[in-house]
C-alpha cells in the first residue's frame, strides 16, 4: 500500500482544501497499519485510520488545522476509549491544488518537522532510483516516506450486465486491483463508472484478450453463452493467473466438450474455474459478486504466496 495520489487529487478537485491524516508509526497494537490514511475536508471525509475515538478526534482536529504539517502522538488507552494498548503517531498534512500538483508520482518523502535530508532517507531514494526498490510506508529519522500507490493486480471483467456491475461495485474500492471492464458497446455500461476502472467497449471483445497482461485475472460473465465460449477459447490461447466463468455445472460440461473440440486438452481447460462464487449465498447479483470477489482475492493471495516461496 502507499499514498493514493489519484484519490488525493480527486478529493482536492472536489472539495478544495483537504487534510490527509496518515498513520506514520506504531508502538504496540493498532487498529490499522502504517500507511493507512483518511482524507478530511470541511463537510466530510473518506478512508479510515481504524475508526473509534482516535479517528473521530483526528478528523475534528484536521478540519481546524492551521499548520501545513503536524505529527502527533496518541496512546490507545482508556482516554480514547480504546483498548488496543499501543501508541500511534499521526501525520496530518494540508493539501490544496498547488501542493498536490507538486507531489512526485513515484515516492513522497517529507520531514515531519523542517529538517535536512538524513542519510537513511537518501539511501531509500537511491535504491528506488537505481534498483526500482519501492519502500514500505515508514517514518524514518523524522521523515515520512510513502511510495505512490500503483495497483499491481490486473483484473479484467468481461460483461457489464447486472453481475458485472455488482462486481465492479464490490471490487473497485480495493486498492490493489487495476480493473479493465469490457463489453460490446458503450451503452452496455452504466453512466457513472468508479475511479480506477477502465471501461472498454469492443464489438468483438475476444480481440482484446491478447492485450491483457499475462498475470491478469479474468471474470467472464457476458450476456451471451456464445461470447462466453469464445472468450474462454481466447483465454486458453493466452496466459493468465486466474480465469473464472459464471454459470452452472451443466453449462461448464457443455463448454468443456466444445473447448476440447477446439483443440484444448482437458488439463488446460481445467485452468478455468466454473462455476465461480459461493452458490450457498444465492443468485442475487450482489450475493454472486460477494462470492466471486472472495474467490479471486483468495486466488490472488495464493499467487503472492507462490512468489514469496520462489523468492
From TrEMBL:
Coiled coil residues, start to end: none
Domain XdhC Rossmann: residue ranges: 155-296
Alphabetical list of InterPro entries matching this protein: MoCofactor_Util/Proc, Xanthine_DH_XdhC, XdhC_CoxI, XdhC_Rossmann_dom
Domain XdhC- CoxI: 13-64
Protein name per the record: Xanthine dehydrogenase accessory protein XdhC
Amino acid at each position: 500500500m502507499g499514498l493514493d495520489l489519484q484519490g488525493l487529487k480527486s478529493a482536492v478537485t472536489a472539495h478544495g482544501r483537504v487534510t490527509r491524516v496518515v498513520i506514520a508509526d506504531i508502538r504496540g497494537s493498532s487498529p490499522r497499519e502504517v500507511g493507512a490514511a483518511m482524507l478530511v475536508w470541511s463537510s466530510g471525509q473518506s478512508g479510515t485510520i481504524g475508526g473509534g475515538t482516535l479517528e473521530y478526534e483526528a478528523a475534528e482536529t484536521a478540519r481546524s488545522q492551521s499548520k501545513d504539517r503536524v505529527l502527533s502522538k496518541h496512546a490507545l488507552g482508556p482516554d480514547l476509549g480504546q483498548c488496543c494498548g499501543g501508541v500511534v503517531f499521526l501525520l496530518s498534512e494540508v493539501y490544496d491544488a498547488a501542493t498536490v500538483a507538486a507531489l512526485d508520482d513515484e515516492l513522497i518523502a517529507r520531514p515531519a518537522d523542517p529538517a535536512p535530508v538524513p542519510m537513511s532517507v537518501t539511501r531509500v531514494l537511491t535504491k528506488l532510483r537505481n534498483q526500482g526498490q519501492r519502500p514500505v510506508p515508514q517514518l524514518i529519522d523524522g521523515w515520512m516516506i510513502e511510495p505512490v500507490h500503483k495497483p499491481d493486480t490486473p483484473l479484467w471483467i468481461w460483461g457489464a450486465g447486472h453481475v458485472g456491475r455488482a462486481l465492479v461495485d464490490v471490487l473497485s474500492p480495493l486498492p490493489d486491483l487495476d480493473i479493465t471492464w469490457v463489453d460490446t458497446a458503450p451503452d452496455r455500461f452504466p453512466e457513472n463508472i468508479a475511479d480506477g476502472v477502465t471501461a472498454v467497449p469492443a464489438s468483438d471483445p475476444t480481440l482484446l484478450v491478447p492485450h491483457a497482461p499475462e498475470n491478469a485475472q479474468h471474470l467472464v460473465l457476458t450476456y451471451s453463452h456464445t461470447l462466453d465460449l469464445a472468450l474462454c477459447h481466447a483465454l486458453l490461447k493466452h496466459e493468465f493467473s486466474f480465469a473464472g466463468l459464471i454459470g452452472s455445472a451443466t453449462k461448464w460440461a457443455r463448454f468443456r466438450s466444445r473447448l476440447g473440440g477446439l483443440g484444448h486438452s482437458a488439463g488446460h481447460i481445467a485452468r478455468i474455474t466454473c462455476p465461480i462464487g459461493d452458490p450457498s449465498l444465492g443468485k442475487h447479483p450482489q450475493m454472486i459478486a460477494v462470492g466471486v470477489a472472495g474467490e479471486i482475492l483468495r486466488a490472488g493471495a495464493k499467487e503472492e504466496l507462490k512468489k514469496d516461496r520462489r523468492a
